[in-house]
Specification:
Length: 340
């Protein structure tokens, strides 16, 4: 994004109108393919993850999508090691070589640029890692590099953001920062967490790079106390899982897309689990899971909903989308098309 001055001397943004990098929140149940969907959409992003294995399904997807080529490359690499069958070193080497080969040949990235921030130090397993300080420092460095013109990444993906926020909330509860007159000030700590959540959502958007936040699913919350006014009324919409309800509003106000993944059996309409589909498979059999019966469907809720936080800032989106995340962003001109 560039800028210019108008007749009043006001600096105006020069934007394309449709191709600005998107900020996307995806939330849904465990096993619904959130990590793989974001990896397929933003392969050249920096992935900040809660665990090393978070993006493993993306590599599994590459292996299965190009299985014959993967097996051939794996066998060739293993044979070249001259190590016996069952050797762990040969297996690891061959997996890397096979994934590198199929990714390079088909326009995918391997490996993803990933940095893991755990909750406890791997050296002793008991010392807490300051997730607030670490995550803040990583995102600040990302933004600074963008503005300096030295950032090699197309965006940043935080996976799994609900877990990071829960860890930061635990840090706040144990911190003396929010102690007032010898007691923990819950309201001050909640304000501090709200400021942190808003900063993570809004600050990377100033860079002109994509932002992806993956969250767990939280159901709507209702007033369940019969002795209180408004018994049975809706307190908070369902949305990305956060330590307390008001953060859902903060999480979902700024991003361009807030998408809820639901998984349904296409025949019965019942919720179920499925492996992620790619855009090509979705075009042939929308929502069908590879290798399955074809009845399992992943659906993205995109339209404003009375009970859940959902939106998509583009008129191309249907209320329920069966296309993969990358396909949706391509169709909305956020991302360049895979094929022209």
């Amino acid at each position: 994004m560039t800028s210019s001055a108008d007749a009043l001397g006001i600096t105006l943004d020069q934007v394309t109108g449709l191709t600005e990098a998107p900020s996307v929140v995806v939330y849904g149940p465990p096993g619904s393919g959130k990590s793989t969907e974001l990896a397929l959409a933003f392969q050249n992003a920096l992935f900040i993850t809660t665990a090393r294995t978070v993006v493993r399904p993306y590599y599994s997807y590459l292996r299965e999508k190009f299985r014959p080529a993967y097996d051939s490359a794996y066998r060739a690499a293993y044979t070249a090691t001259n190590l016996p069958a069952g050797d762990a070193r040969a297996h690891e080497h061959s997996v890397v070589q096979a994934l590198t080969a199929v990714a390079s040949a088909n326009g995918y990235r391997y490996p993803l640029a990933q940095v893991t921030v755990g909750e406890y130090s791997p050296t002793d397993g008991t010392t807490r890692i300051g997730n607030y300080d670490t995550l803040t420092a990583l995102l600040a460095r990302f933004c600074q590099a963008c503005h300096a013109g030295t950032n090699p990444y197309s965006g940043v993906v935080v996976d799994e953001y609900s877990t990071f926020v829960a860890r930061v909330w635990s840090e706040f509860q144990a911190s003396s920062t929010f102690v007032r007159r010898g007691r923990f000030d819950a309201f001050a700590a909640q304000d501090g967490l709200e400021a942190f959540v808003r900063w993570v959502v809004e600050t990377p958007r100033t860079t002109g790079r994509a932002l992806g936040l993956l969250c767990h699913d939280a159901e709507p919350k209702y007033q369940r106390n019969p002795d209180k006014l408004g018994y049975g009324s809706l307190l908070y919409k369902g949305g990305p899982a956060m330590p307390f309800g008001r953060l859902r509003e903060v999480m979902t106000a700024a991003p361009d897309a807030v998408l809820r993944i639901t998984l349904k059996d296409g025949a019965s309409g019942l919720a179920t689990l499925a492996k992620p589909t790619d855009d090509e498979a979705a075009a042939e059999a929308p929502g069908a899971a590879p290798g399955g019966s074809g009845h399992v469907e992943r659906r993205y809720w995109t339209e404003a909903h009375p009970l859940y936080h959902t939106k998509f800032r583009d008129f191309v989106a249907k209320p329920e989308e069966r296309l993969g995340l990358r396909g949706m962003l391509e169709r909305a001109s956020y991302l360049p098309p895979s094929t022209v």
